[in-house]
Design goal:
elongated, 2 helices, 4-stranded antiparallel β-sheet, about 40% strand, alpha+beta, about 25% helix
Length: about 110
Amino acid sequence: DHRDLHKEYRRQRQMCIRDRPTLGTYMQYLPKGFSTETYRSTAAWVYSVVEGTGRTVIGDETFEWGPRDSFVVPAWYQHHHEANGDAYLFSFSDKPVHDQLGWFREVRGNA
């Protein structure tokens, strides 16, 4: 019966969505004067500044940020953050998809 097949498809789809997240969410605390190490990965990152001010260097461009600003770091772009005062950055990324498919790669520091 096609209704049973449809129910089973919906059940499997809901399990897949629930059990395999496609986006990860993160919160970073950057103390006053802190600078993160240089980082790049196969995942793309979207940041939203919750609190504080600072700058992010993406490739060879510097972006100043403050509360409620948002910015994007495209996949495989080298970047780092610098905080003027205590700062909180919320971000989300497609890293979970890369992890599940075995595609995720990252480089930390000046490697």
